[in-house]
Design a protein that fits this description.
By secondary structure, the chain is an alpha+beta fold. Helix content is about 30%, strand content about 20%. It has a single domain, classed as 2-Layer Sandwich (Hypothetical Cytosolic Protein, Chain: A), CATH 3.30.1230. The strands form two sheets. A three-stranded antiparallel β-sheet has the order 4-3-5.
């Protein structure tokens, strides 16, 4: 009998729902300290996952969940850039 593959699950930091890893977008803090969206999910650095939804991003920013998950303070310029990148990815 064929062995079933395990699908990695991650929690969205905005809405706190558990979904398959491929359904979420990774936000990464690189070793250089830059904060980026990582659609591939393979970039090195500390990561957090978020639904591809503007409402989840806003909720994560409002509750400072993104800052807590990445262990860094996020500047308003970085927040705007992340919002623009999220719009392009969606």
């Amino acid at each position: 009998m064929a062995k079933q593959r395990k699908i990695p699950q991650r929690t969205c930091i905005g809405c706190r729902t558990v979904r398959p890893k491929r359904d979420l977008i990774r936000v990464v803090r690189t070793p250089e300290g830059e904060i980026l969206l990582d659609p591939t999910g393979k970039q090195s650095g500390r990561g957090a996952y978020i639904c591809p939804d503007a409402a989840c991003m806003e909720q994560a920013l409002k509750k400072k969940q993104l800052e807590r998950a990445l262990e860094v303070a996020i500047t308003p310029e970085t927040i705007e850039r992340l919002r623009e990148e999220l719009e392009r990815v969606m």
